[in-house]
Amino acid sequence: MKNEATRKVALIAFLVFGLAVYFVLLGQRGVSLIQTGGVAAVGLGIGVLILPFLGIWIVGATLRAGLQHQHLARRIHDEGLELDVSDLPRRPSGRIDRDAADELFQQVKAEWEEDPDNWRSSYRLARAYDYAGDRGRARDTMRRAVELERAERGD
Q1: Pick from 89, 20, 13: nearest CA to 55
Q2: Beta strands, E only, the chain
């Protein structure tokens, strides 16, 4: 498990490094377009120069969200509140069978409805949404879990 985590961190570091190199090259290309002095080239250069800043913001937001989610996952694990999906039937792809995921979702949703302002139930609901294949709601609910946990800590 630790070896797998190390590989994932190394892959993320490699990808971030690759993006950093790309952003630097893109920034240089934008500056060189601006330096040519033509109206169209300056306009294009400004547009190209905006892209690295946008990319840095996206990478930063994604990494920050990942670290926040990992923090919650660690706390849930430490408290013994992880969803147990080990005995649920799986598809050949390894994903949980749709009917089993929907049943799990209904159970976790009922738990959440009893205590919607608890980050733990929101975290578990986000995971259940993910297992059921609803990624959009999973992200929204995980964001809420992060906010609730942060409020609990007093940050």
Answers
A1: 20
A2: none
Residue 155, CB-side half-sphere exposure with 13 Å CA sphere: 7
Q: What are phi and psi of 96, to 5 degrees?
A: -70, 140
What are the tokens at 21?
């190199």
- State the amino acid at position 93 in one-letter form: S
Beta-carbon contacts of residue 108 (< 8 Å; ≥ 6 apart): 83, 121, 124, 125, 127, 128
- For the full predicted model, state whether its pTM sits above 0.85: no
Burial state string for 98-136 with b = 16 or more CB within 10 A and e = fewer than 16: eebbeebbeebeebbeeeeebbbbbbbbbbbbbbbebee
Phi, psi of 90 (to 5 degrees): -120, 155
pLDDT of the residue at 1: 57
- Residue pLDDT, tens place only, 103-151: 999 999 999 999 999 999 999 999 999 998 889 999 999 999 999 999 9
